[in-house]
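Before a colleague's protein record goes any further, I have to sign it off. What it holds is a sequence and that sequence's fold in C-alpha cell form. My question to you is simply how this chain folds and whether the C-alpha cells agree. Thanks in advance; the entry in question is below:
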Amino acid sequence: MRSSFGLLHNAKQVLHWLDDRYQQYIYERPWASYREKVAREAPWPGFREEAEQFCRDGVLVLPCHFQGEILRGMQADVNRWVEKITMDSVGRYVMNENTKAYLRDSAAFSRAAMDPWILALVRYYWGKPVFLAHSSGYRLDPSPGGRKIGPFQWHHDANRKQLKALIYLDDVSREGQRMDYLPGTHRIWHRFGRGPGGYEETRIPDEAVVPYGQPVRCAGPAGTVLLFDTNGIHRGNQNQSAKRDVWVFQYTAGRHLLPFSGLHPEVLGRLTADDRRLARAS
C-alpha cells in the first residue's frame, strides 16, 4: 500500500511538472501573425533584421538610443533620487518601484518606458501583446573587482522568459562596469526550485559557462539601451573604472506583473488605447 501511494504521488508530481512546462511553452510561444503585423507597421528601415537578430541571440544593443533632453532628464532624476538612498549589500544604490513611485514622478522615464522603437522590438520578440511588468534603477559606484556574488556572477533570472530594457545613463566601456551576455542561452530550459533554495540554482559557476562561447560585452555611450531575455545567462561586472547609473524596464506577456505607480500624468494623457493597456492604465 505504501509503495502504491508513493508511485501515485510521484506520478502526480511528474504530471504537474509536465503541465507547468506545457503552459510555460504556450505562454512563451510567439504568434507568427502578430510578429508579421508588428514588422509591417514598423516605420524604421532595417527593423525586421534587427528584430530577428534579437530573437536569435536573446540580446540586442542599441547604441545612443536616447539622447538630448530625455537623456538629461533621466540623468537628473537619478541624481535627485539617489541622494536619499543607502548602498545595499552588493554595492548598489537601488531605486525600486516597490518602494517609491519613481515612474509617476518622472516624465523622462515614463517617456522612455513607452518608446515606440523599444516597444516594437519587445512586441516582436514576444510575438503577442505585452505589459510593462516592473521598473527599477540603480547606481553602481567604482569598486574593487572580482566579486562573484548576486548579479555579478553568471546567472539567469528565476521567472523564465522575460524581457528587460536596460538603459545606460553613463558611458560604459568594454572594460567598464558593463553587462556580459551569452548569446543563444535564452533558449535553454533551466531547472530550478521555487523556494529559497531555487535562487542558488540560478547562479552558475564560471567553468560551467565555457561551452557557451564568448559573451557579448554590452558596452556603449550614455543613452545606450540593452534589450535582453533574462532567461539567458548574463552577469554584471564591478571594477574601479567609473560609476554606472542604469534604469531597467521589464516587459512580459502577462505573468509576473509586479506593482508599480503608473506613468507620469503628462505622458499617460498622450497614450493610445493599446499603449494604455500595455502600461496597465486601462
Remarks:
- Residues 31-278 form a domain with the Jelly Rolls fold (CATH 2.60.120.620).
- The beta strands are 59-62, 92-96, 131-140, 163-168, 179-181, 216-218, 225-229, 234-236, 244-252.
- The chain has one domain: 31-278.
